[in-house]
Give the backbone structure.
Amino acid sequence: MASAAGHVAHGAIRREAIYGLVALICVILDQTTKVLARMYLAPGEAVPFIPGILDLCFVTNTGAAFSMGLGLSWLFAIVAVAVVVALAWALWITDGLPPFLCIFAGILAGGGIGNLIDRLAQGSVVDFLSTAFMDFPIFNVADICVDVGVVCGFIGLLWWDRQQEGAPDDAGDEAGE
């Protein structure tokens, strides 16, 4: 019985380590690119990065995605902290979670933390990636992380849930009927 408890704790620590490491990598990438944007880009001036596809254009944003909720940085900061803590807690208590879901949760958390750092340090988020081929809001690496984490995490959870439904315990119950 003690070894089973130790095994669960070890698995939880490993899930937390994956989550934390991936989140840290995303935060470092996000904050590094934002420092470079502040250093080398003039506010509001578009500089072609991949001609016809992606421009670099430094702006700040006090809202959320697509500039919704302008001036509510404090609310988005609270939401970011709540999401990061909820993800860590869910990883801690969920047995058998595949590592890819820990990675997606870490990507989502890293994006949330990256923008949280901006909100706490300067009251707004640095955005600098602008699509040249269509009219789309300017965004940053943290925004990409949040979007990738949510979409891939949702798809991964659906897949994992489906795998759990077809687990051997369920198959044995159906065979006995």
